[in-house]
Amino acid sequence: MNQEKKVIVTPIDFSEQSLIALSQTFNLARLTGSHIRLLHVIDQDFVSHLTNSIFSKENYADQIRNDIERRLDELASKVHKEEKISTSTHIRTGKIYNEIVAEANDVDAAFIVMGTQGASTLKKKFLGSNTSRVIKEALCPVITIKGHEHLKGCKDIALPLDLTKETREKVNYAIDMAKLFGAVVHIFSVLETDDEFLVNKLERQLQQVKQFITESGVECQGELVPQSDSNVSLSIIEYARIKNCDLIIIMTQGETNIADLFIGTAAQEVINNSEIPVLCIRPMVRKDTTQYVLS
Fold first, then answer.
1. What pLDDT, in 10s, does the model give residues 146-179?
2. Among 83, 164, 176, 233, which is most exposed with the fewest C-beta within 10 angstroms?
């Protein structure tokens, strides 16, 4: 195991959801020996508005920044005192998603853990767009937190599989996370067809992956799941709910559909609708983010 200190970047805007995301970071930080980096991004458009307004004479922008710095420091101090976790803070100004990704790159983050509002309304769709772009552009895995319930551990992991070659990459991440938390991995494929050839192919892959995970020393369960009346994404969420899973691991391979604005439509729907935390992994691993794994 690499002894270099790992960093988990957690964006904080002081909303309830960002604070819930922070609380979900504690166990991961302890198990990986990571430092938590509390990041607040001041939106550049907001700064420009203040600068160009009559309020600029009263140094409102400086006052706001000073207040944010104070609140971040208080939060970091509380985390360090109550959770005994190494914590630091940083404030950046710019486009929110750009600055989150830039911060993660600057500190060579092992994870980004962030709250998301989902996209059930137009307002939430706008708020959720920052999450989508972070997931699309970040080099490290991103864990999104939409649910309001604080999960104290991770005993069951949902790992949906399909026949794309990229899906195999997330198997190793599932093994790594399962070893960290002592979790069971639930692998499954949602049946979108009754074509006998494809069903048999999925069944063979399921058995091969199950054997691979089991031989790695991780308990694994697997099955084919009929698609619900809704769609694949909601079928994934429903299966994870039935199995009482604490984490869903998905790939975020892009799609060519024009409606797919930032990341794959299926991945976006899981992120938007899942009350269970979602670990999003890019298909192309551009740096090693698995060195935290316990041997």
1. 988 767 789 999 999 987 766 667 899 999 999 9
2. 164
